[in-house]
């Protein structure tokens, strides 16, 4: 295997390619979206993992890594791979992630920073009470195991029918909050055990609920921002990041074991890393996982829908005003750990592809199917979470995103291990420092807070700049944190 520094080719200011000659078995080149600065900061594990992805059966055009890429399980986090399902393409849990449909939801208000500042501690403290966070946290939605099977087949639509939200929320959620074809018969009892009492919970790690401000100088595209509901300087919004909790983790774990048993013996597929365990998409095992994975997608949509319901309750209580009158409307809800069947043009031919996005966000351009009617002429909103110290972004998909199968970054991307972060920062001191800087934070543990220090992540502005320069998304608004709940 050749030395990576010698073989990597710079295609443009923001595109770098590793040719198929780099590693035996590569079917397509690997491409990384990054500026020169971000490439220098990229960990070596990304190169090894994205070139392993390039060896998977059915992979089309390129194995891709987004600007926030870093070492993950199987795929790098930030990895994208489109498999031609009519040409032996596979499905791989390592290309989706254990936290199926880990994703983002952004909600606007008609409040300004001036309105919210006197109540920020009260808001964060109450949200901390009402939206459980941390490992093993359980939610207030008490349902039976059988009812939970309905939730994972119906997603957010179950929530709306049961009073947890507004009908319009569905229009502004990817897949209208329910991906069709989910089948709870393909889910293990252990997965049900782990998930049925976790609806409406943040979880742990890098999951968070954040109150943010859109400052005047950070609104880069005012007309687009207005289309998305951000219409005034210092407007307050709420962003949160979470997924399918223990349920999705168990679904992935169950099917990884299935794939490891049949992959080589039944289908003759040899892989370079067992974390890339896979099966042909059209095989019985591949189809079973696909329908089970959809249950994970729907559980996560439901989870975020219930969290939104709690957020609206808290704001309504503290401001003594209905959530409708506070303008608490969804901008969008988008997943960044998925595999979805999509049609894309490849070398001038439309192909039916299973697009794996692992720590990467769908970013459809204007006039594309599946973009909400409200946004058809401008493109799909893209929600990018930064660190609790720095800020986050609202982007929009662009027509030139075809090059990445309309995918972009999903966050800052870690630049330091959790272990090193815990050794570098102390959570208690970090909380005090942030409060002195106008960011009030509640966390379930000091060590967990230290792991999420801003210095443990890449510079979010660098990541967004790379994505925009590469033509895979466009920045609309930068959002600054003022209150945060960490898992």
Q: How does this model look, in words?
A:
The protein is 33% helix and 24% strand. The protein has helices spanning 4-7, 36-41, 44-53, 113-116, 120-130, 145-154, 156-161, 167-171, 189-195, 222-227, 245-267, 284-319, 418-424, 427-436, 446-451, 460-469; strands at 9-10, 15-18, 30-33, 59-70, 77-84, 90-91, 103-112, 208-214, 235-242, 279-280, 329-335, 337-346, 349-358, 361-362, 381-384, 392-396, 407-408, 440-443, 474-486. The mean pLDDT is 96. It is built from 16 helices and 19 strands. With 487 residues, it is of the alpha+beta class. Strands 7, 8, 9, 11, 15, 16, 18 and 19 form an eight-stranded mixed beta sheet that branches. It has a seven-stranded mixed beta sheet with strand order 1-2-3-4-5-13-12, with helices on both faces. A two-stranded antiparallel ribbon has the order 6-10. The longest helix is centred in the middle third of the chain and has 36 residues, at 284-319.
The major sheet is characterized as: 8 strands, mixed
Kindly state the mean pLDDT as a whole number?
96
- By DSSP, the count of extended strands is 19
Distance between the termini: 41 Å
Contiguous runs where pLDDT drops below 50 for at least 5 residues: none
Number of helices: 16
Taken from the alpha-carbon principal axes, the silhouette is: globular
Report Rg. Answer: 21 Å
Strand content: 15-25%
Instruction: Report helical residue fraction.
Output: 25-40%
What structural category arises from helix and sheet content? alpha+beta
């Amino acid at each position: 295997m050749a030395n990576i520094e010698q073989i990597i080719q710079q295609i443009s200011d923001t595109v770098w390619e590793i040719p198929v000659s780099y590693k035996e078995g590569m079917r397509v080149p690997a491409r990384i979206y990054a500026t020169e600065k971000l490439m220098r900061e990229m960990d070596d594990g990304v190169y090894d993992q994205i070139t392993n992805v390039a060896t998977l059966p059915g992979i089309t055009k390129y194995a891709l890594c987004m600007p926030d890429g870093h070492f993950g399980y199987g795929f790098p986090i930030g990895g994208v791979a489109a498999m031609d399902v009519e040409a032996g393409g596979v499905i791989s849990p390592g290309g989706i992630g254990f936290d199926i449909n880990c994703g983002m939801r952004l909600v606007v208000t008609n409040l300004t920073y001036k309105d919210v500042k006197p109540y920020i501690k009260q808001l964060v403290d109450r949200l901390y009470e009402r939206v459980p966070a941390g490992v093993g946290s359980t939610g207030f939605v008490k349902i039976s195991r059988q009812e939970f099977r309905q939730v994972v087949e119906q997603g957010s639509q179950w929530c709306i029918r049961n009073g947890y939200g507004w009908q319009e929320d569905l229009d502004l959620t990817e897949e209208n909050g329910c991906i069709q074809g989910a089948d709870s018969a393909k889910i293990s009892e252990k997965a049900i055990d782990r998930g049925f009492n976790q609806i409406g919970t943040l979880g742990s790690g890098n999951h968070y609920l954040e109150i943010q401000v859109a400052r005047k100088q950070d609104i880069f595209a005012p007309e687009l921002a207005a289309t998305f509901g951000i219409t005034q300087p210092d407007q307050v919004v709420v962003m949160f990041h979470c997924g399918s909790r223990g349920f999705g983790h168990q679904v992935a774990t169950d099917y990884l074991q299935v794939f490891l048993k049949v992959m080589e013996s039944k289908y003759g597929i040899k892989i370079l890393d067992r974390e890339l365990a896979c099966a042909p998409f059209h095989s019985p095992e591949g189809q079973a996982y696909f329908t089970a994975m959809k249950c994970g997608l729907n559980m996560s949509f439901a989870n975020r829908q219930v969290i939104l319901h709690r957020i609206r309750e808290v704001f309504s209580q503290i401001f003594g005003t209905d959530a409708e009158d506070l303008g608490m409307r969804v901008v969008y809800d988008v997943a960044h750990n998925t595999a979805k069947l999509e049609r894309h043009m490849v070398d001038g031919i439309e192909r039916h592809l299973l697009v794996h996005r692992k720590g990467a966000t769908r970013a459809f351009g204007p006039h594309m199917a599946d973009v909400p009617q409200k946004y058809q002429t401008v493109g799909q909103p893209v929600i990018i979470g930064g660190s609790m110290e720095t800020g986050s972004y609202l982007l929009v998909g662009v027509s030139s995103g075809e090059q990445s199968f309309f995918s972009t970054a999903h966050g800052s991307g870690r630049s330091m291990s959790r272990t090193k972060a815990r050794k570098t920062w102390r959570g208690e001191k970090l909380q005090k420092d942030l409060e002195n800087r106008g960011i009030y934070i509640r966390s379930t543990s000091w060590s967990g807070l230290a792991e999420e220090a801003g210095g443990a992540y890449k510079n979010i502005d660098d990541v967004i700049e790379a994505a925009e320069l590469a033509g895979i998304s466009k920045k609309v608004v930068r959002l600054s944190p003022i209150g945060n709940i960490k898992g």
